[in-house]
Structure formats: structure tokens, C-alpha cells
Specification:
The chain is an all-alpha fold and 89 residues long. It has one domain (24-89). The protein is built from three helices and no strands. It has helices at 2-21, 30-53, 62-84. Helix 2 packs across helix 3 (62-84). The protein starts with a helix and ends in a 5-residue tail after the last helix.
């Protein structure tokens, strides 16, 4: 009986170690954030173009422009990092 408990304990520890070693990419990780930015940047660019075509103000506040700039810079960096192999998806 003690041997089966020891095997079960070793098996659980092995699963925990395997789960710990696996990379987890989600929105909470840096790679997940960069992936999210790469998806959002084209939509933001299309929004910018559509507002300009309609003759409307693209962004009304300075903070909107700052957020737009950060998204564009992060998207460019993430594409560069993927191309050079600095990050892997």
C-alpha cells in the first residue's frame, strides 16, 4: 500500500514538473501581450483611415494619440522580434 502511494506521489510530482516546464502563452505573458498588439494594430490603422476618409477627427484627446503610438510601436517591435527569432509563438 505504501508503494502505491509513493508511485502516486511520484506521478503527481512528475505531472506538476511537466506542467511547470511547458511554456504558457496567454494574455498574461509578454508574448501574449505582443500577439494581442499585433492583432489590434491593423484594426487601429483601419479605424484611423476610415475616420480620415469621413473627414472626422481621428482621436479627440492627447491620451488617445499616446495609446495609438504605443500600440504601433509595440506592433512594430513584435514583428521585428518574431522575424529575428527573439520570441517564438
Amino acid at each position: 500500500m505504501a508503494a502505491t502511494k509513493a508511485k502516486a506521489g511520484n506521478k503527481a510530482a512528475g505531472k506538476a514538473k511537466a506542467a511547470k516546464d511547458e511554456p504558457k502563452f496567454g494574455v498574461h505573458s509578454e508574448v501574449g501581450q505582443l500577439r494581442k498588439v499585433m492583432v489590434c494594430a491593423p484594426g487601429t490603422a483601419m479605424y484611423y483611415k476610415a475616420r480620415r476618409e469621413q473627414g472626422l477627427a481621428v482621436f479627440t484627446k492627447t491620451s488617445d494619440w499616446i495609446v495609438f503610438g504605443v500600440i504601433v510601436v509595440a506592433a512594430v517591435y513584435s514583428i521585428y522580434a518574431l522575424a529575428t527569432g527573439a520570441i517564438v509563438i
